[in-house]
Amino acid sequence: MEVEQDVAPHSTETRSFQAEVKQLLHLMVHSLYSNREIFLRELISNAADACDKLRFEALDQPALLEGEGEFKIRIAYDKDAGTLTVSDNGVGMSRDEAAENLGTIAKSGTREFFSRLTGDKQKDANLIGQFGVGFYSGFIVADKISVLTRRAGLPAGAGVKWQSDGSGEYTLEQIDRPGRGTDVVLHLREEAKDLLAGWQLRNLIRKYSDHIVQPIVMKKEEWKEDQQVMTDEDETVNQASALWARPKSEVTEDQYKSFYKHVGHDYDEPLAWVHAKVEGRQEYTQLLYLPSHAPFDLWERTPRHGVKLYVRRVFIMDDAEKLMPLYLRFVRGVVDSNDLPLNVSRELLQESKDIDAIRAGCTKKVLGLLEDLAENEAEKYAKFWGEFGRVLKEGVGEDSANRERIAKLLRFASTHAESDAQTATLADYVGRMKEGQDKIYYVTAESFAAAKNSPHLEVFRKKGVEVLLMSDRVDEWVVGHLTEFDGKQLVSVAKGGLDLGKLEDEAEKQEHQREEEQFKDVTERIKSALGERVKEVRVTHRLTDSPACVVADEYDMGGNLARMLKAAGQNVPVSKPILEINPRHPVVLRLRDEKSGAEGGHFDDWAAVLLDQAMLAEGGMPEDPAGFVRRMNQLFLAMGGEASRIILPN
Ligand code: ADP
Ligand code: MG
Known about the structure:
This protein is an alpha+beta fold. The protein has 4 domains: 12-236, Heat Shock Protein 90, CATH 3.30.565; 243-373, Ribosomal Protein S5, domain 2, CATH 3.30.230; 410-493, 3-Layer(aba) Sandwich (Rossmann fold), CATH 3.40.50.11260; 507-647, Up-down Bundle (Four Helix Bundle (Hemerythrin (Met), subunit A)), CATH 1.20.120. Helix content is 38%, strand content 19%. Strand 2 and strand 3 (83-88) form a beta hairpin. The radius of gyration is 33 Å and the shape is elongated. The chain starts with a helix and ends in an 11-residue tail after the last helix. It binds adenosine-5'-diphosphate (ADP) and magnesium ion.
């Protein structure tokens, strides 16, 4: 039994790709052929990553370098064999790593990706691009790929040959391989053989991979008797210098964009970027990008942080979570420090004051970039907001030091506009405030439609007072932390007693008082009919069209938040709602004259229906839905012809 285990790793073995890989391969080859040249960028990018990884591992374990500390990527082609080879002397792969890395897709968001596929070639090509095509893009141009590799530090006999025709299976075979690193050999499809030309490849390298830090070398070619022939001399094709270390004036827009595609693992162009050298107590360079679309894993519980840390041009780590606050987790790019020690570890990063200073600096830079877009490039900012607004909103609670700056960057839907587009700033709102208005009003609900149609808005509509409509889940968190803006309190229209202050005149106030007295008896009867289901029953003036609504007490949790937390499985303290009734509504007037159950009337049922429909109207559920339906039906029947006598407002 045990013998088999010993033998297996040395023999040739055939395995199946993970189902997702098969699906992706099929899609890619059929959707991306018109973009076929991207494969070279992807393979070079992997080679560069492999070199970076080894350089970092070798900081603690210099023996891994096996005496060869200069990293290099080589592109070679063989016209006769029809092959194109991308080689590197990076970290390489063990047998298990090759199976894991080249046989499965480990990316988070994979399921999300497949669920979004439409079957439309053009659209899907776009999606695959966003998902990151990676290694498998080789199959766009190759009908067979061989990967010859050895993990740095393993003996020469532990080399691995991975091979596949990209249909469903791959083989793994043990080989001897003296040099560490990886050769990816593409056996080109007939129609892709035009790529086997030195000038073609050089062009592609300069176009897509100029910024790669390692030298990308090719054999120099000469003209001899009207023919291009290869010499034995190596020639570096790319610039091979860290793009971020060059002065801004020497970097072109295209170079910035193509560098983004590499660091951001993105196929699309960036929305904007900022490149700066910071001097002072901490010296570092930052090149930070805003992507133009949200990645698939934006909402993962342990999100990737897309900023790479370098120390004096040496790659230290990917996704360094300490370099950006969570609410800016969509930022991609590079930070290169002049002061941190080269052997800085993740643990050290956790406590480093220097890192804190770098993070504060990067945060300010990104906020500055956003402010600049908001002010000068409204369209871009709107695009940014659509993709990442919900993430930026988290910053209101997370980053109290920058709360005011973030508040100015927020955008909301509001009753001022018809559409659900989030375009209103808090400053716009303040500028539109009515004479006598001293608060910023908002409503939170589960959806835009529920917010927009909330009964709580009725009086505000009548008076022409704007209300912000909040329906993103994170909005409850925003209003929990942002209690005022520009000296004006943010107030929920669904909480506490309604105090319109100077928005109401004396006559209106007196009228309200009169109505409250007139309905005192009714509110008391409703309260005793509903008992413990409500905290209080009172007359309201916030309604014009609806008979009743529920509100939360000033310091209780609002209904929307309570429902959200419950849905997320959290234990929420039960706070009873306050039922408010509209003294001018015909249903309420009708109720006033109804006898109680004991006297042969339906008062108790009416009261229960009033509460249940108020719950429904704000997006909640009646406590006993079946009971609600039964009572409604009983009331319909009891009313008979009477129903036609109740004239409802429109
Ligand atoms: P990504 O680069 O986004 O991780 P890829 O599909 O490009 O995805 O590559 C998958 C994995 O295969 C890489 O993460 C890496 O672990 C491994 N890999 C690919 N090419 C190389 C290489 N030249 N050297 C070492 N490992 C590699
Ligand atoms: Mg890759």
